[in-house]
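Dear colleague,

Following up on Tuesday's group meeting, I ran the structure prediction for the two-component complex that the binding team flagged. I've pasted the input sequences exactly as they went in, so you can double-check that nothing got truncated or mislabelled along the way. The structure tokens for the whole assembly follow below. Feel free to forward this to whoever is handling the docking comparison.

Inputs:
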Amino acid sequence: MKKIFNIAWALPLAASLLLASCGGSTAMQSTGAASSSEESSAESEKAETTAAAADSASEGGSLSVVATSKDYQKLFDSFTADTGIKTELLSMSSGEVLSKLKAEGGTPMADLWFGGGIDAFMSAKADGLLEKVELDAAKDIASDYKDSEGYWYTKGLTVVGFIVNTEELKKLGAPEPKSWDDLTNPAYKDEILMSNPAISGTNYGVVNAILQKKGEEEGWKYFTSLNENVKYYAKRGGDPREKTAAGEAAIGITPMDKKTEKLAEEQNCSLVYPSDGIPYIPEGVAVFKGAKNKDAAVKFLNWLYSSDEHLKELAEIDGKNTIKVVKPNIEGLDAGFDLNTLMQEDLSLFGSQRDQILANWDSLAGQKAES
Amino acid sequence: MRALLSENPEGKRGERAAAAALFSHSRPDPLLFLLLLSCALFIAYPLLLIFWRALYLEGRPGLSALPALFLREKSSLFHSFYTASLSALFSTALGFFLSLRISSSGRRGRSILLLLLMMSLVSPPFLSSLSYIQLYGRRGLITWHLFRISYDPYNKWGIIAMQTLHFSSLNALFLLDYLESLDGKWMDAARDLGAGSMAVLGTLLLPLLSPALLASFGLSFLRSLSDFGTPAVIGGRYDTLASDIYLQIIGYGKMEKAAAMNLFLMLPAFLAFLLYRRAVREGERRNGNGRGRERFTMQRLSLPALFLSFLSILSLLYFTVLSLQYLCIFLLGFLKAERGVYHFTSEYLSRLFRYDLSSLLLSLRLSLAAALFGALFGLLLSYYMERRLRFGKNALDFLISLPYLLPGTCFGLAYIMAFHREPLKLTGTSLILVLNLIFRQLPVVIRMGSTALLEISRELENAARDLGASKRRLLFEIILPQLSRPFRSAFLYLFTSSMCSAGAVIFLIDAGHKIAVYTLFDLINSGEYGTASLLSALMILSTVLLSALLSALFRCFCERKGKGRRGNEGSDRESSRTVHAL
């Protein structure tokens, strides 16, 4: 009995020692010569072979993707069917991708970055985290929607509007807001939810677009009075629509996508496209600098942008046709709304102004912090 | 009674311990060396890298910008301190009362209560906040639809309420474990001497429990400091330092600023730590030898009816709130709303099974690995810290506590920084996930180990040593067998907490290693609440089932061991029913 007991204790102990000594031996190696651990050398070998395979023939290889949603799996599956390149999809918010990229110091966890507010892509380019890519179809893409040096491209637009909880508005006895200017109506005090523009690319797009439309001075004045009505600035992009639908607020500022439509449908909320202009923010696409499967990533981008069929497939997944704005010569696709209702935005300012705008924002919104 | 407590062969024991320490100091133990090396590599090194960033606050090395930042962040630091103190206080008190109630109940009631506590340990973080809002929000089912109170939970009280609710379960399990390992003979002696049950509770039980109470308080305090999810969802405009750090990293991309703010978080943590160490020393002084222990449950100490009914009402309330939360999660998975009207659907269920469930299997595997290695590692380390280390015990303990106090995001980032380069490249493997899970939760395991060691007599050890047992034999044949109970607790704790831990591991996963929490996160982000609810129900069920199975295995194993060894060592504690007996 005693023996059995001892063995049972010793087994996991031995394993844990193994684990510890494994850590120990790698530590030794760091002080020693440039020998590398088995696992990572095997990995880089694999990377080399996949890169070679992707180069020479159309079969084999792999592509690792960070996207904003898992829904894109379908698109990547048809890429795999066409090319034989296996894809793995991971979804992450662009803020998370950026901070992870910076910590990884040039050894990115994935090859392709698919979707997310363009401000994050601009910031990543400025930090030298993206790879320059020459696309076959680049000339067909409207100049606003691609980086002039080819570090990023776009795959569509996120447009912004309001989700309105009709029942809550009724309780307030307030009218449904029709425009951005309506939101400053004192009747909505503490009834508006908005995400922090530092967290949400969509809401950064709102702030930048309105500042451009109204001008610096008027624009900040507007946000100061909007601040009076905002209950608080959510730290997650999805918060405003979720909480508005749950009745925690009457109005949420939200991206107008399939999820928002579904939520509005389920929870009896209505959606409002503001009449004084719809802010929008392009969704970026880029290849990471130092990507293991760079060639496969470039191959995917060419596969996507050179074929209207594939772009239409993307539009179907997204539930919107804004790719028409990015690549105007797509046949048989209609943007679905009057492009003139979009706000006039100079997208080139999105990246350069970001730090300044967010700093101003912080001091404005911070004033109302609870103590 | 006082005499009983102070009767302590302090002098002799101290001498012998000193001699032993001197001995172990002169011949370094390779096992100790390995343990320390792992701590250095997997805690100190990543933390050093992230704190190093704080020096580059102005773009070049220097500390001059720190004071200004400190002044700016003063209010969130105060908020953190405030909410952490109250959450820790309430959750420790609630945990204490719950453990008293559970210990006073019969076998069946006990199993049900323990099951609920276990479930709350496994509840995945995002969904609890979602169900919290649905139940207690401004238009919550309970607050608005039942009681017509329009209560706005988005302030510090929302945070404190949610954290208290969440932390109490671990505290209750921890305190129950400690309470029932006390020597029942003392209570009997006190009762025989004429003390009423309330007097025993106040003058004997409370002082004896004080190290465990303080450990609970300290851990809850640290946990609250590092929690960024709750303030982010429920805090509204109330910022704590942890939620601010999260915002700085994810929103502004300011790693340096976030690192400096992490430094500030260490301030309250250090205070809590000092308090805790002092209490432990006090507890050690009070808690005498453990010879001839008798199992203790509150049933032996028949509490007055009034106090018992107070405990019952409190527990009933707590468990109602918990059950409602689970009911809410399960129901969300079967109800579908259309234009605000709910009806039954099995749509989400069929969608769940079409979904990729391999992430759940990976989670279970990783959590089991983390639990096994983490529990062993933690208990060994706690033994060396309590009994063998002569210098630097406090410093080591503080170092080990740090990962628990940093917001998960930061510890995850620290791991990426430390282990992305060639000689130490671990990113993209499951090893980095397991290591991160282990070292983040290590302080809890260490507390479990050292509180358990406090009540294991040193005399047995000394006797074995006098009889010529080698250090290795001492460790494997005397100490570790006595730690089987904390091993079980530590294992189950690590397993359950690894299953639903989110902050750090979300950062460390890659496309090849997706864990269940990530899938859940993904579902919630795409607005699939129904499917998310079912997935989390599945996570809870599989974790609880597996825990029950393992717990039964342990019990079986310990009972056999008890039979085989009784009489052999004399003081081998009676194998007792498992805390987590389900």
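Chain B touches chain A through 78 residues (CB under 8 Å).

Cheers,
M.
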